[in-house]
Structures are given as C-alpha cells and as structure tokens.
C-alpha cells in the first residue's frame, strides 16, 4: 500500500449524516498525514440501489483499499486510486468529502463530475414521492439518520378527510417550497386529523 503522503488527492464519499464512522476517521487521518490544504464537502440523494453500489465497490476496492466497512445499506470504502483518487460509497445518500492540494483542483473538479455521473442526483421532481429522514440513536450512542421514500397523496386527494380543511387549503395554495422541497402533512384515518 502506497503512502497517502505521496497521493495528490484523497476522496471520501459516504453517508452524509455521519462524521462518527470509522471511514470518516480514516479519512481525517489520511488528510492529516497527507498534509492536504483544501477540503470540500457536498451531499446529495441518489437512486442507485445497494446492489449497484456493491458491484461498484467491488471494482473500486479491489486494489489500493485503505479501509473497508460493509453495512446493510451498502459499504464504506476509503481507497487510493491511480492519480490519487479515492472514495467511500454508500447507498441512499452520497456525501463527498474531498481533500486536495491546490495543484490538484482541476482533477478535483473532474472527479466530482465523474462521481455525479456514477451516482446521479435523485429525481426530486416526482410529484407523489417524498424523501423523509428518521433520526434515532445507535447502540454506540451516535445519531443515525434513516432515509425513506414515501408515496404521498396530493392535498386534493386527502382534503375530504378534513372537516375543517378550509384554512389548510389556503395554506397549501399559498405555500411555495424551495427547489425540491415539499410540504408534508401527516394524516391518519379520516377524521383523526
């Protein structure tokens, strides 16, 4: 295994909601030992399923694997590839954490484009699909976020369930969410609100 100090760029891609993972710690260790001056972090949802992740991870981690941790949603991998690339990949949500030297900034941008081609941003324009995050505490005491995609009915479909729906109707008509955002109204059996 080649020393990370010789590597111009190290990348870590993993679950966006955890900085307590072993792969993140390995990334920070590589960052310190490699003397990287610049770091960035971006996150996005992806529709690539865990089987596709596993296949890509198998190819990716075959050589130059610095860290591998398999998880139920995919895996975390910190690798060093020819040219100094390395990343961690996991299902559902991608977080790209990069460390690079100023001389490697063009390579850094090219790599981010390559990653977005491999793990494209999820289509948030599906009218009836909503991404919801549920937080819990892991046995180790860390906060863990589980993402789910829920199929949601439109306000027009559920409005008859609400005897006092007029104030909500005005709100639903006037509310304009940010790009990709949606208002989610939890509802139960008709009449329960």
TrEMBL record:
InterPro entries assigned: DUF5925
All residue ranges annotated as the DUF5925 domain in the record: 82-172
Pfam families: DUF5925
Protein's name in the database: DUF5925 domain-containing protein
Organism (species): marine sediment metagenome
């Amino acid at each position: 295994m080649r020393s990370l100090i010789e590597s111009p760029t190290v990348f870590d891609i993993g679950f966006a909601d955890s900085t307590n993972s072993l792969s993140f710690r390995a990334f920070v260790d590589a960052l310190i030992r490699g003397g990287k001056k610049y770091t960035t972090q971006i996150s996005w949802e992806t529709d690539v399923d865990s089987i596709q992740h596993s296949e890509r991870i198998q190819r990716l981690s075959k050589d130059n694997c610095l860290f591998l941790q398999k998880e139920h949603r995919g895996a975390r991998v910190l690798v060093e590839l020819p040219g100094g690339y390395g990343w961690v990949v996991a299902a559902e949500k991608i977080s790209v954490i990069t460390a690079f030297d100023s001389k490697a900034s063009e390579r850094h941008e090219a790599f981010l484009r390559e990653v977005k081609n491999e793990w494209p941003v999820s289509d948030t324009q599906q009218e009836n699909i909503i991404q919801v995050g549920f937080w819990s505490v892991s046995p180790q005491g860390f906060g863990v976020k589980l993402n789910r995609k829920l199929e949601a009915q439109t306000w027009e479909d559920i409005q008859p369930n609400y005897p006092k729906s007029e104030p909500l109707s005005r709100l639903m008509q006037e509310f304009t969410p940010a790009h990709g955002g949606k208002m989610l109204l939890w509802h139960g059996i008709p009449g329960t609100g």
